[in-house]
Protein: Ribose-5-phosphate isomerase A
Amino acid sequence: MDKELMKKVAGQEAVKYIKDGMTVGLGTGSTVKYLLDALGERVAKEGLRIIGVPTSNRSAKRARDLGIDVKSIDDVDHIDLTIDGADQIDENFQGIKGGGVAHLREKIVAINSDRNIWIVDATKMAKNLGSFPLPLEVTPYGSTHLFKRLDDMGYHPTFRTNAKGGHVLTHADNYIIDLNLGYIEHPHELETILNNMTGIVEHGLFLDVVDMVIVGYEDHSETFDAKRK
Ligand SMILES: O=C(CO)[C@H](O)[C@H](O)COP(=O)(O)O
Structure:
């Protein structure tokens, strides 16, 4: 199974939805990298005029390197379409994001977009959410106490660390706690609980957000209308 090829297929399919004059949210991750490559090619060949709103410093740099104009979300008045990756998508098109530490910006861009498309390789599709650990962006201040509370609640938290054993830091210099849940039976109930916990800046549950999902296989892609279930 060639996962890179599957990601590339999804990224190349998604670029077709970008039209001249659009303001486009640019997600983060290894699948979005293929979207950016394909978009850069269209900008160069077709003279496509778009404004990209990147969700991470990584995507901003790559977009600029490819000749794509980028602006901060606060410098645009609206976003027509956002294309982003995801870590896991269930059969109701609910998702987990944040494996790449960018879910706070990704969620802000997503909820301010007219439409959202997710691009994934086929291995990301699952019956239920939860086998992929659920990322939480948390404030460093008080994070050991928050960690203990999450542990007491049975959520099996782990701090995300780097190769040197230090905390992985987000764009806002916050920490990441991953919840090793295994199976999320009621995503909306969990969302409400996490929304109400002080110290959690944002969680990686993206519920009722996506409009279209493009799943890449090695030799074709499948497109799902996520709002028509
Ligand atoms: O949520 C994300 C970053 O925070 C990414 O969209 C997600 O991790 C998917 O990344 P990849 O395409 O590399 O698997």
Notes: The domain at 3-124+207-225 is CATH 3.40.50.1360 (Rossmann fold). The mean pLDDT is 97.
